[in-house]
Amino acid sequence: MCPSPWALPRRAPRGFTLIELTVAIGVAAALFSALVLGLGALTGARARQAMGELGGAARSLYDTAALTGHTCRLVFLLPRDDSTEFMYRAECASGPVTSAMDRDQEIRDATKAAVEAYRRSNRGSTRAADPGADPRAAATGSRASGSTLLDVLDSEKARVEKAAAFSAFTTPEIQPRKMSGVRVSVWTSHQRAKIDSGLAYLYFFPQGYTERAQVTVRQGKNVWTLLVSPITGRTSIVDGEPEIPRS
After folding, report:
1. What is the per-residue pLDDT for 110?
2. Mean pLDDT, rounded, for 159-180
3. Which CATH code is given to the segment(s) 45-239?
4. Would you list the domain boundaries of the chain?
């Protein structure tokens, strides 16, 4: 039987175009990334990493203070509660400096000074850029800038170093770090309550002791707390968030 001359020819099977393949690969990559992030949140991978790094930094600073005779401290820069990131760095003094007994007041003063210094620097740069600008507009622009609390508090580093009380301290084991995906709160024996935003300090003294401290790290439903022994500087990790010691 001969085919009808009016019958339409069959089309060959059509493959994927380059655009379609690119879109498909992009969707697969996005789904894979979401899966990895979801598994990370379930296992608390970032919280575990933060615990390990903070524990190593604390032990290293304890040894450094004892061997050099200089007071050292771990500085935490903690954002507001709606942010899941934080920064920390190490600082050491040029000698055996004592810490304030009222840590809460020390933190309030340091945070206030950092914010004021940051606003002054922004205001000065605005005026330099536009000498004829209204000073009130410059101040308003400074407050309305898109800077985060971490940026404001990080300016405290320059202020502290300028005062020559403490200066930045780095080793291969201790580097300034910014970590995301976790929330952190810090308590030491000189505080009345935990600090979860602003500045927080953990001191290490030349005599071979540190402050009793609890550093709590949260990632989703995963909560761990790093306990720091004041006599030996040893660190241990416990599940959950222990109560603050009252004695």
Report:
1. 78
2. 79
3. 3.55.40.10
4. 45-239
